[in-house]
């Protein structure tokens, strides 16, 4: 579909409408354990929280609202019933309202970025955001795909690994600084666009206690994949999940000659 | 090997649970231990704040004894202070229970800093319970607007447990009162913006305590108010404790709390709301002691295995756990009774007495688990021992608590026909 934004000066308009994706993942501090049947990792009874890159995305949306660049910020999460808690955290940080696309437990483990991006694309059709900000990747699967796939499905420009978002010089586009292997790349993207957040984009705030209390009253809408007409048929099958190999001890050498000698022994240098 | 033991315990645990309940529910027999969503959010925020803002600086404040203003300001900006102040003043009007949740979390990080952050609760309590709207707006409103502190000044060099024996005098002079006397061991004494002060307003020694005292709200900057030096205490060293001298301090009539003569009732009434949170502070220490001891026991090896695998050590941890779980529940019960609007004196004393004993024993046992290392300042547990001791002393000594408990239970027993 085509969604054209009035290319008037961004500062003069009532601000961008931002859609922010949040995923509920195992908390970064938890020691993850593989299930005995090697079908996945243990999630039951394990502490979960918002994906750290998504927290950064939420923080950026709230800051853009504070700077009057954005007018409305909506959070969306695709996940189990408990994803509501993740959305409440986003609301407590300053997001205006939330959407929960609830995934039945049976399909949860097989959910892939391709499905999530299709669900998000469908929501974008009705919500018509000017900017979608997602975390660059989730810390459970490290896929780094959803943002890119979403942009492709919508045929929108994408600016991934963002470390800075600001209006472009003529205020008609967004200037995004991206962290790439070679350093920093700065590009101008027209809206609507998809941006994914990287670590140095910002430092997320604590939600204050009064805001946490107020978040309960903010609207949270529920949707199902069926309502959105998206097929969640898995396209991949997880064969097994295993612990990484235990790191073997190294050896200390006394001199450079020793080192080269050992490397030769192992056939690593000629 | 330890993993094997834990795995077996987990399997047995879940099997027996499966037999007892067909599906997990929260409300059985009308009682629930589940926290509401808001309480969980409060607990999470307090826990995160503690880990990020309190734990990293606790040792440094313990050594320097400096007042933790940066931590206080941050807590204030997040709405984590003054939790019980009413909504019409701009507060969150949270209950005693919610205060206990936050207190336990902060205390886990440092009970000295926790006392500083939540010390306003004791000073504010008399105003909350007996203050006029004008007094509340003036003095409690200030606390919400800015990170200001207040203090509860009752104890004197010559009278702690014996509140009725305080000698600070309040003499009427026209419409004003003139206060003279000395207070001691006043938490936040040097940093408070205002004090709740109890003074003897009726000089006749035969007048009963219930009529002889008056409570006053006194601004720090009133001429004649002189906080002494910051006391160098064994533990909770980040907290500011001082003697305060009142020399011909003139207090207007509008700063009398309640009516003249009502002071004793006001001063004692405050404790019913604050004893449970003090118990929660002790629970926080017990939790930290168990946490540190457990982590250490899993790392430290003797006789070729982590010391956690020696039963003597494992049993020390088990006893800490027994104390922690039961102390917390006692505190929760006391807080719940207060929030239900009932007089909770009996439960509050039980909770405070028990939790303070648990904190002291757990801290001492934690040092034991650490062995020689535990005795040393490089490790975090000796501080817990030093911090724990005051819980058996302030807000009513353990002996006074036992007096209260025995009086309450005997009064209850005597009211029943045998």
TrEMBL record, chain A:
<dbReference type="InterPro" id="IPR033948">
    <property type="entry name" value="ETF_beta_N"/>
</dbReference>
<dbReference type="InterPro" id="IPR014729">
    <property type="entry name" value="Rossmann-like_a/b/a_fold"/>
</dbReference>
<dbReference type="GO" id="GO:0033539">
    <property type="term" value="P:fatty acid beta-oxidation using acyl-CoA dehydrogenase"/>
</dbReference>
<dbReference type="InterPro" id="IPR014730">
    <property type="entry name" value="ETF_a/b_N"/>
</dbReference>
<comment type="function">
    <text>Heterodimeric electron transfer flavoprotein that accepts electrons from several mitochondrial dehydrogenases, including acyl-CoA dehydrogenases, glutaryl-CoA and sarcosine dehydrogenase. It transfers the electrons to the main mitochondrial respiratory chain via ETF-ubiquinone oxidoreductase. Required for normal mitochondrial fatty acid oxidation and normal amino acid metabolism. ETFB binds an AMP molecule that probably has a purely structural role.</text>
</comment>
<comment type="subunit">
    <text>Heterodimer composed of ETFA and ETFB. Identified in a complex that contains ETFA, ETFB and ETFRF1. Interacts with ACADM.</text>
</comment>
<keyword id="KW-0813">Transport</keyword>
<dbReference type="GO" id="GO:0009055">
    <property type="term" value="F:electron transfer activity"/>
</dbReference>
<comment type="similarity">
    <text>Belongs to the ETF beta-subunit/FixA family.</text>
</comment>
<dbReference type="GO" id="GO:0009063">
    <property type="term" value="P:amino acid catabolic process"/>
</dbReference>
<keyword id="KW-0249">Electron transport</keyword>
<dbReference type="GO" id="GO:0005759">
    <property type="term" value="C:mitochondrial matrix"/>
</dbReference>
<dbReference type="InterPro" id="IPR000049">
    <property type="entry name" value="ET-Flavoprotein_bsu_CS"/>
</dbReference>
<dbReference type="Pfam" id="PF01012">
    <property type="entry name" value="ETF"/>
</dbReference>
<feature type="region of interest" description="Disordered">
    <location>
        <begin position="228"/>
        <end position="247"/>
    </location>
</feature>
<dbReference type="InterPro" id="IPR012255">
    <property type="entry name" value="ETF_b"/>
</dbReference>
<protein>
    <recommendedName>
        <fullName>Electron transfer flavoprotein subunit beta</fullName>
    </recommendedName>
</protein>
<feature type="domain" description="Electron transfer flavoprotein alpha/beta-subunit N-terminal">
    <location>
        <begin position="38"/>
        <end position="232"/>
    </location>
</feature>
From TrEMBL, chain B:
<keyword id="KW-0285">Flavoprotein</keyword>
<dbReference type="InterPro" id="IPR050741">
    <property type="entry name" value="Acyl-CoA_dehydrogenase"/>
</dbReference>
<protein>
    <recommendedName>
        <fullName>Medium-chain specific acyl-CoA dehydrogenase, mitochondrial</fullName>
        <ecNumber>1.3.8.7</ecNumber>
    </recommendedName>
</protein>
<dbReference type="Pfam" id="PF02770">
    <property type="entry name" value="Acyl-CoA_dh_M"/>
</dbReference>
<dbReference type="InterPro" id="IPR037069">
    <property type="entry name" value="AcylCoA_DH/ox_N_sf"/>
</dbReference>
<keyword id="KW-0443">Lipid metabolism</keyword>
<dbReference type="InterPro" id="IPR009075">
    <property type="entry name" value="AcylCo_DH/oxidase_C"/>
</dbReference>
<dbReference type="Pfam" id="PF00441">
    <property type="entry name" value="Acyl-CoA_dh_1"/>
</dbReference>
<keyword id="KW-0809">Transit peptide</keyword>
<dbReference type="Pfam" id="PF02771">
    <property type="entry name" value="Acyl-CoA_dh_N"/>
</dbReference>
<dbReference type="GO" id="GO:0050660">
    <property type="term" value="F:flavin adenine dinucleotide binding"/>
</dbReference>
<dbReference type="GO" id="GO:0051793">
    <property type="term" value="P:medium-chain fatty acid catabolic process"/>
</dbReference>
<feature type="domain" description="Acyl-CoA dehydrogenase/oxidase N-terminal">
    <location>
        <begin position="36"/>
        <end position="145"/>
    </location>
</feature>
<comment type="pathway">
    <text>Lipid metabolism; mitochondrial fatty acid beta-oxidation.</text>
</comment>
<dbReference type="InterPro" id="IPR036250">
    <property type="entry name" value="AcylCo_DH-like_C"/>
</dbReference>
<dbReference type="GO" id="GO:0070991">
    <property type="term" value="F:medium-chain fatty acyl-CoA dehydrogenase activity"/>
</dbReference>
<comment type="similarity">
    <text>Belongs to the acyl-CoA dehydrogenase family.</text>
</comment>
<dbReference type="InterPro" id="IPR013786">
    <property type="entry name" value="AcylCoA_DH/ox_N"/>
</dbReference>
<dbReference type="GO" id="GO:0005759">
    <property type="term" value="C:mitochondrial matrix"/>
</dbReference>
<feature type="domain" description="Acyl-CoA oxidase/dehydrogenase middle">
    <location>
        <begin position="151"/>
        <end position="249"/>
    </location>
</feature>
<keyword id="KW-0274">FAD</keyword>
<keyword id="KW-0276">Fatty acid metabolism</keyword>
